[in-house]
Design brief:
There is one protein chain. By secondary structure, the chain is mostly helical. It has a domain of 50 residues. 71% of the residues lie in helices and 0% in strands. The chain is built from two helices and no strands. Helix 1 crosses helix 2. Keywords: Membrane, Transmembrane, Transmembrane helix.
Length: 89
């Protein structure tokens, strides 16, 4: 004998041709945006260190310069993560 499941299947959405089309459309949009997003992220990750140099040369004594440097560093890490797969076959 099996016990009935305490969880209902109501959380699973209906499956049909319309939901499949919406899912395919979203998948195509994501695929079409992935290449340009990786391209942009890759080149932003390349260019941002050149912005860091003047900030470091000025010194990080001023809190606003330090905050700007840390924000740019975080943006650089994010760009490296997003652009790491660019131009790989």
């Amino acid at each position: 004998m099996s016990n009935p499941s305490p969880l209902s299947n109501e959380s699973i959405g209906p499956s049909g041709p319309e939901t499949d089309r919406q899912h395919d459309r979203r998948r195509r949009i994501v695929r079409s945006l992935k290449g340009p997003a990786q391209f942009l992220s890759f080149w932003v990750a390349i260019a941002l260190p050149f912005v860091h140099v003047p900030l470091l040369a000025q010194g990080l004594g001023d809190p606003s310069v330090t905050l700007t440097f840390l924000l740019l560093l975080g943006l650089n890490v994010l760009a490296l993560y997003l652009g790491h797969g660019y131009n790989q076959s």
